[in-house]
User: Which sequence fits this backbone?
C-alpha cells in the first residue's frame, strides 16, 4: 500500500488519494478539538478538503459525533458551538453531528462483534478522514484508526469500547474514603465500598487517585482492538470508498479531547495520505518513533496496527512516497 508524505503540501497529498465522484455526498470526518484546545487539526486542512471535494462535483459535509464524557462536545448543540468557535462552521460546507439522529447497528470482527455507528455515516457515499496524530491516555495514540474507531461511534458504542478494559475493585483494600468519587462522577460509593457507576468508562483515572490502590485496571490494549472493530464496520459500510489524510504535527502527549493538552513533545514529521488506515498510522509511528509514542503512557501503540491487520482493516506494509 502506498502512503504519500510531505512536510507541508497537504492539498497535493489529498489529490493522490481522493476518488469521490460527481453528485456523491461526501462526509469529511474530523475532530475539532475540545474547547480551548490549540493543537487540533488546522481548519485550513478542512477547507482544502471541502474545495477538493467540490472540484469533483461532489457535495461535502464536515462531521463528527458527540462525546461520551461531559464537555463542550457532549451534546449536538454544544458540539456545533465548539466547532464554530474553532473555525469549522464557515468553511463552505455544513457541519453535521453524525449521531444526532441516533445510530445504525453493524456487524464487525475482533473484540466487538456488533457496533453502532452514527446514523449520518449511512447517508453519504464516500468518506474522507482527516486526522491529527497525537498521544492518548487509554489508546496510547490517536490517528486514523482512532478517528474512526471512537469518532464514528455512538455514545453507547463508545462506552462498550472503553469497557473492554478490565477493572477490578479489591474490597479488602477499599475503605470507602470517597476520593475516587470526588475525582470522577462515574465512581460511586455504596455501603462503604467503591462501586462501578453505569457509565464508568474504565479510563483508569480513579486508580491513580485511590490512596489504598484498591482499584486496578488491566488489558488497556483491548480498547485499541475495539477501535479496530468499529473502524472495520466503517470500512464495510463504505466498501473501501474512503481516503485518509493525517497531520503528524503539533504532536502532544495528551489527546485533542483535552482543553489543554500541553506543548508538543515531539518534532513535526509532516503530513500523510493513503487509502489504508493501518498503513497511514504505521507510517506516522515509524517516522515519529514507536518507542517515543509508547513512552507517553507506557502502552504500545502497535496494538491498533496488529489488530487492524489481523481482522482485515488494512495492511501494515507500505511504500512511503515523498512528494
Assistant:
Amino acid at each position: 500500500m502506498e502512503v504519500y508524505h510531505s512536510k507541508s503540501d497537504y492539498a497535493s497529498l489529498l489529490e493522490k488519494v481522493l476518488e469521490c465522484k460527481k453528485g456523491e455526498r461526501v462526509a469529511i470526518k474530523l475532530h475539532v478539538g475540545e474547547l480551548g484546545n490549540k493543537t487540533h487539526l488546522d481548519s485550513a486542512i478542512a477547507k482544502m478538503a471541502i474545495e477538493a471535494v467540490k472540484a469533483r462535483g461532489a457535495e461535502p459535509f464536515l462531521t463528527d459525533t458527540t462525546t461520551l464524557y461531559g464537555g463542550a462536545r457532549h451534546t449536538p448543540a454544544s458540539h456545533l458551538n465548539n466547532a464554530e468557535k474553532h473555525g469549522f462552521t464557515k468553511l463552505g460546507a455544513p457541519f453535521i453531528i453524525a449521531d444526532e439522529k441516533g445510530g445504525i447497528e453493524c456487524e464487525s470482527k475482533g473484540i466487538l462483534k456488533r457496533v453502532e455507528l452514527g446514523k449520518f455515516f449511512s447517508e453519504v457515499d464516500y468518506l474522507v478522514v482527516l486526522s491529527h496524530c497525537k498521544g492518548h491516555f487509554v489508546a496510547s495514540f490517536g490517528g486514523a484508526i482512532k478517528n474512526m474507531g471512537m469518532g464514528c461511534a455512538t455514545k453507547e458504542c463508545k462506552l462498550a469500547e472503553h469497557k473492554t478494559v478490565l477493572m477490578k475493585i479489591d474490597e479488602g483494600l477499599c475503605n470507602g474514603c470517597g476520593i475516587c468519587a470526588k475525582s470522577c462522577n462515574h465512581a460511586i460509593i455504596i455501603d462503604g465500598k467503591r462501586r462501578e457507576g453505569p457509565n464508568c468508562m474504565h479510563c483508569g483515572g480513579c486508580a491513580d487517585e485511590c490512596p489504598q490502590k484498591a482499584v486496578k485496571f488491566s488489558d488497556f490494549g483491548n480498547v485499541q482492538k475495539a477501535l479496530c472493530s468499529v473502524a472495520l464496520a466503517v470500512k464495510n459500510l463504505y466498501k473501501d470508498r474512503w481516503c485518509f489524510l493525517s497531520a503528524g504535527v503539533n504532536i502532544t502527549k495528551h489527546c485533542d479531547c483535552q482543553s489543554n493538552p500541553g506543548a508538543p513533545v515531539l518534532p513535526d514529521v509532516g503530513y500523510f495520505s493513503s487509502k489504508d488506515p493501518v498503513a497511514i498510522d504505521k507510517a506516522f509511528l515509524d517516522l515519529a518513533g514507536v518507542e517515543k509514542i509508547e513512552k507517553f503512557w507506557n502502552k504500545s501503540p502497535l496494538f491498533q496496527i496488529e489488530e487492524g491487520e489481523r481482522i482485515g482493516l488494512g495492511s501494515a506494509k507500505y511504500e512511503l512516497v515523498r512528494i
About this structure: The chain has two domains: 2-160+221-322, 167-218. The first strand starts at residue 2 and ends at 6.
